[in-house]
Specification:
The protein is mainly alpha-helical. It contains four helices and four strands; from the N terminus they run αββαββαα. It has one domain. The mean pLDDT is about 90.
C-alpha cells in the first residue's frame, strides 16, 4: 500500500471521528432571554448578548455570589436587579455561555474538517466525488 493511500485512510478515519463529534454536539439552542439582557452591576453596564465568554463567566460568578448572599439573608423574593431576579439573570448568562461553547466547538470541527479535506490526495478527492454522484443518481 502506498504512503498516499495510508494517509488517505487516516484522513478518512479522522473525518469520520469529526462527523461523530458533530453528531454528539447538543443541538444549538436559540437564545430566548428571560431578561432584557442589559445589566448594570457595580456601576458597570453589560449587554449579555455581546459574545465575550470571559466577561459573561465573570458576571455569572459575581451574580452567584450575590445569589448566595440573598439566600443567606432570606431576600430571594425582594432582591431584584433591573426588574429581574438573580435566577433569571443567571439562566440567561448560562444559556448564552452554552451557545458560545457550541459555536466555538462547531467552528473548530469545521476548521479541522477543511484541513483534512485539503490533505486528501487528488485521487481520493476524485473517488469521493464519484461516490457522491453515484449516491445522487440512485
Amino acid at each position: 500500500m502506498s504512503k498516499q493511500n495510508v494517509n488517505d485512510e487516516k484522513i478518512m478515519a479522522l473525518k469520520f471521528q469529526i462527523q461523530e463529534k458533530k453528531k454528539s454536539l447538543k443541538t444549538k439552542k436559540r437564545f430566548s432571554p428571560l431578561t432584557n439582557c442589559n445589566l448594570e452591576l457595580d456601576g458597570v453596564k453589560y449587554n449579555i448578548q455581546v459574545p465575550n465568554k470571559e466577561i459573561l463567566t465573570a458576571l455569572l460568578v459575581k451574580l452567584n455570589m450575590y445569589r448566595l448572599s440573598i439566600i443567606d439573608l432570606d431576600l430571594e423574593d425582594e432582591y431584584i436587579i433591573y426588574g429581574y431576579s438573580i435566577d433569571e439573570w443567571i439562566t440567561d448568562i448560562k444559556l448564552k455561555l452554552e451557545i458560545l461553547k457550541y459555536e466555538e466547538e462547531d467552528r473548530k470541527l469545521k476548521r479541522l474538517e477543511l484541513q483534512l479535506e485539503n490533505l486528501l490526495s487528488n485521487e481520493k478527492k476524485v473517488s469521493l466525488a464519484i461516490d457522491e454522484i453515484e449516491e445522487l443518481i440512485k
